[in-house]
Amino acid sequence: MTVKSNHVTIKGIKDGLVFLLEDECDFEDLLTELRYKLEHSHTNILAGPIIHVDIKLGSRFITVEQKQDILEIMKQKGNLLVRSVESPELQLEEVLGSNITVMSGMVRSGQVLHHDGNLLFLGDVNPGGSVTCTGDIYILGALRGMAHAGFEGNEETVIAASHFAPTQLRISDMISRPPDEWETWETRMEFAYLQDGVMQIDKMSNIVRLRRDFNMFKGV
């Protein structure tokens, strides 16, 4: 049996249930619908004896805190036993590289965070805030301000975010067009990169392919 709405799909399998969570919607909207499904939908499925649950997140990256948020909601039903949470099957070292610095916090309006090297930032970049790096920029949070990767001229750097809604992007010397001029614009997990001197936007799940293409081009 399948229960489907915009963001949460519940499927019965031989030995339990699978929760398929959409990977392109806002995370808070996802949590809201998950709560609603558990409280109001198909109580004949979500009640009774112990049921094993597998949660699949598609291509969505989540933080430890976000995973805990999901598990806390699942605990609403005492008979649901979560046995697995599947996030993207990506090798982080292949994507991010071994030389990356992790920082956390919030970049507020008027603030500039600068880093030499590759940066994994756990937090939000608010409108009016800026992040600049000589290497790649990965944001596990919302990018609503400006991000500049490859600050010293590296055109193979990327900018990625869980919630991708920047006011401006820069890679090396290339500046993106304003968001309202782009053909499509959705706040979802995406990344920006340069291809033939033009800035491109793609789904985060395709970043592994891009990295492999870069390495093949360089003969690595």
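The above is record 1. Record 2 follows with the same two-line structure.
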Amino acid sequence: MKLPSLSIGHLTARIPLIQGGMSIRVSTSSLAVPVAECGGIGVIGGSGIPAEELQDDIRTAKKATDGIIAVNVMYAMKNFYDLVIASIEAGVDMIITGAGFSRDIFKIGRAHNIPIAMIVSSPTLGRLAEKLGASAVIVEAKEAGGHLGTDQPLRTIFPPIRDVVKSVPLIAAGGITNGYEMAEMMDAYGADGIQIASRFVLSEECDVSDEFKQAYLRAEKDDIVLTTSPVGLPGRALRTPFVQALADGVSFASKSCKHLCLKKCDHHYCINERLNASRQGDLQEGLFFSGENTYKMKAILPVAEIFRQFVSQAESVYRENRGFSPPSQSA
């Protein structure tokens, strides 16, 4: 059966798939544009880069596609609101946010007619996001890469959030690696769509170095671990010498900070510098955020082929969408 489209606010994606927004220049227009062209929602990672650079990348993306381009900005960023407004001024279609909870973001969304998608990991925050005006809620579980808001798996936390979020689309995120799992989340759990990130690192279009991608391809299950982050949340990443040193208690604290990027930072290392190092392929010093199931992925593919596989696999077993249905336009 054909997959349904995904309507978020006034936007409609032909394929119910959001590409996760990976920051520090992992998810750029180079990745977001082909995702949007394939009918999904392409997402630029907006955290940890200058607002002017973000605006330039959004404008590049909007010139290259008529598809949906979103930006993901962590609430933990000190210049969160500046990045949000800069994104809106540059013409972005949607804002996705997490790593903290902003109430004011929904007022900004309404003022500019920009849909806001909130990433949550609990029924309480899901219900609150819906009440305050979220156009979509993304349920992100422990299987996700990067910063985590829960230690519970997706199939455990999704049902109770589905029970309380009724009026807007609910998106499943964390550990989804193929179209069969996509159909499972939509059929059995009532998801309106999915968000995937790590799979798109292993795309030809992703801007990270080949060394980054090869690290993903070499990863075994035990190589993907939890680590600490200056943001104040645990993070899921590859076990590199840097991550192992953190686990062994080595301190990388600095007396000064060049970036001053976070609202609250414990300064036991600079996350901006470590993520930049990983993007450039520094296997010794980089922080390589990674989903729990990255070890299952064994090929670098074009974005179009990733979509083809997800859609064909999902549609071969998909039965019906039991989640949110937008009201009829003729009603």
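The first helix runs from residue 29 to 37.
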